[in-house]
UniProtKB/TrEMBL annotation:
PANTHER family hit by this protein: MITOGEN-ACTIVATED PROTEIN KINASE KINASE KINASE 20-RELATED, SERINE_THREONINE-PROTEIN KINASE YBDM-RELATED
Alphabetized InterPro entries for the sequence: Kinase-like_dom_sf (IPR011009), Leu-bd (IPR028081), Peripla_BP_I (IPR028082), Prot_kinase_dom (IPR000719), Protein_kinase_ATP_BS (IPR017441), Ser/Thr_kinase_AS (IPR008271)
The family this protein is said to belong to: Belongs to the leucine-binding protein family.
Molecular function terms, GO-annotated: ATP binding; protein serine/threonine kinase activity
Name assigned to this protein: Protein kinase domain-containing protein
Domain Protein kinase: 9-266
Signal peptide residue numbers: none
Keyword Nucleotide-binding: yes
Cross-referenced SMART domains: S_TKc (SM00220)
Keyword line: ATP-binding, Kinase, Nucleotide-binding, Signal, Transferase
Domain of life of the native organism: Bacteria
Binding site for ATP: 37
Amino acid sequence: MDPSSVGGHRLVGRLGAGGMGVVYLARTPHGAWVALKVIREEYAGDPGFRARFRRETELAARLTSRWTVPVLTADADARAPWLATAYVPGLPLSEALALSGPWPPAQVRSLGAALAAALDDVHRAGLVHRDVKPANVLLAADGPRLIDFGIARAVGATALTTDGSVIGSPGYLSPEQARGRTVGPPSDVFSLGCVLAHTATGRPPFGTGGAAAVLYRTVREEPDLTGLPADLAPTLRACLAKEPADRPTVPRLRSLFGEFTAESWLPAGLPALVADRAARVLDLPVPEPTALSAEPFTDTPPGPSRRWLLTASAAAGVGAVGGGTAWWRWARSGTPGSGKGPLPTRTIALLGDLSTAVVQAQVRGARLAVDEHNARSDRTFDLALRTADDRGTAAGSAAAAARLVASREVYAVIGAGTNTAVPAAVPVCTEAGVCLLIVRADTDALDVTNATSCLILRSTRTAGPGSVVKYLNRVARPARTVVVHDLTDADEGEPAVRIVTVYGKLEVGTVEVTEVAEGAGFSGVAHGLAAHPDTAVLFAGGIPARAAACAEALTAGGHRGFRGGDEHILGTPFLTAGAGWWISTGYCDPAADPRTRTFAAAYRTRYRTAAPAWAAEAYDAVDYAAHGLAAPGGDERESLRAELLRRPWQGITRRFSYESQTQYLETDQDGGWFLYRVEDGRARFVARHDDIGKKTTS
């Protein structure tokens, strides 16, 4: 739940949130409007963080550039460190581009002049911005402002985390930042080039999609500058050079762009939008201290009493734009035998195609978790499970989700469905503020989790076939590995390629990538391996029939080395042809995994059948939601996701801990990868990711 004040500043509402913290619109004790950024508490536990934060904010406070937003005050010693900047009402460049499209060359040049001047001042102050992107460029009536500078470096995070995610914004950060190397002013030049190219063409120069895909193109491929005006192309192309030394300096850019032109610096239509945003804040009241309303206690939960509501369309301090709501509800929990009445009920819904066996398995696993929770004597609320049929379609998913979130009784939704259906439920749940816990879907359509109310409870293909890669590193240790990238579904295979090339997760031997054209056979791959039959093969693709064709070609060609892939190739054609292949999955086998055997026994006792794939994961989803609901502040459905992100939790299938920037599941420590081997036409469970290399898998 949001606080009502921070450091003597009265908070009015949220302006946005990101990986590092939350930004509020606030009033100082003297009545001035500020943008107040509260850094996430977990950063305070990083050794040296407070010293870095203090140093960076002190440097930023001395920055007096016309084109930046000044830091007014900060507190590095607070439990959750914070800083306040002047509030400049305006429109983020990212939103302006989405509304009006690309800018004419003259306006791009004027924008470049102001931003180059801003970076010059930032660098002279001893800072490197590290996150120049359209969302951090604020369009005010008198010119642009570069915001959110200095803090990324204070946090002290490396550019790449262990699972290949980034601190910074893929598509705008430099190749050296993507690779985790030391960055300096040339990195900001690269990012500025990306911003201006996007502004001139209407699209990011390294495309869109998953973070890993964009990073791979940034590091390995040339930018797409199609449509860039001829007079801007040489300068921006130079800014986007892969090597820092090949880029122009910021002073050189200032001379190339010339002076900022105050008149007509915004394209037609945008001045009115900027003025409208600036006007909205003027009518906001000075906030009064928050008070709790002492409503009479009843056994029936009362309706929510509104504390405050602000829908602010201006942005400052971050590029995200949004509104903020917070609710106080009178305590109503009782306990058995306490004399305080019945316990409140929190309903968790499960959404999926109820005609399928895999969703029915999840329903059964979820029911076990609900019943076990309700049998606990120390519980403070009861759980109820509601199911909804999405019929396996996007339209069915959206409609069913809308019916679920319309009920205030539903505190969370478990997305048990497929890649086709689940993404359609995301915007519905996000608009309602209901946390959507995604169990098995794995698609690029779910990449931007930190802008939604959903959490993905599984390791995804974005991080590659983690268990297979670990087996190669710890057990097989091949001298040479060939990654077979099947271009029939190139997007499905790209994550595996990036993980072992850009991110270097395959730590042993040499790595080569062989591309197989769309629809082509694999005899060429097999022929190329004939002289080296012990070479390891990692299949990067997701069509079972194509993986089966690869397996058949390798067998016919005499290949006898390691062969591996991920769960997406499991299917009837492949299971028949893929004997001996190693497979990385996001689901366990409850009966074979020692850590889930208690669950497996309970499942068999109740349902008289073995627990199938995904049943234990749904069990964990219910327990995880209950864990969040039991936390202080977690009993409001709008705040459940924040409580779940606040601290790690250990389930029976994996440890739930999320990377702060991307809010993806951290996979290095029991993150939910499992290793299987194909035998006798089925995938047989071998080990958990963190057990690979032990006797069971050698």
